[in-house]
Amino acid sequence: MGIFDKIQDTTAAVTSSDKNTTSIGENCTIDGDITFDKTIEIHGKITGTVKIAENCTTAMLVIKKNGIVEGDVYGDEVVIEGEVIGNVTGKKKITIKSLHLYQVMFTMIFRYEWWRDSEWQPYQK
Fold it and tell me: 84, exposed or middle or buried, with CB in 10 Å at 0-12, 13-18, 19+?
């Protein structure tokens, strides 16, 4: 019985953040487009478009140190530690921790509403 108790204890260490994060491993290569609605970490290579699902506003895209994306990237919050060969679009925030960016155009999406006092205010969804 003691052996089974130890196994249960070690597997119970999964946190809620791990359940909501998809990780594409270092040895993984994907040819094709990916659409995500939870946080995704890319450690491997993707050739294609990586984009956030239309109705999602909380997912984060993290291209890790050894991660490579050859294609356009669209996300709510984008963190680049690896390489991107393509355009990067972020709805809220783009964080660059790497200088391995090629042929890249960064785009931040801003939304504004016209208020009665004639001042522009950020649009809150």
Answer: buried
For 13-22, how does the pLDDT look when each residue is reduced to its tens digit (9 = 90+)? 333 346 788 8
Return the pLDDT at 105. 61
Q: What is the DSSP string of 81-111?
A: SSEEES-EEEEEEEEE--SEEES--EEE---
Which pTM does this prediction carry? Answer: 0.67
Q: Write out the DSSP string of the chain.
A: -HHHHHHHHHHTT--HHHHTEEEE-TT-EEES-EEESSEEEE-SEEES-EEE-TT--S-EEEE-TT-EEES-EEEEEEEESSEEES-EEEEEEEEE--SEEES--EEE---EEE-TTS-EEE---
pLDDT beyond 50 at 4: no
Q: Tell me the C-alpha distance between 66 and 83, whole Å.
A: 8
Task: Name the residue ranges covered by the structural domains of the chain.
Answer: 16-122
pLDDT digits (tens, 9 = 90+) for 83-103: 988 888 888 888 888 766 665
Give the count of beta carbons closer than 10 Å to the beta carbon of residue 65: 12
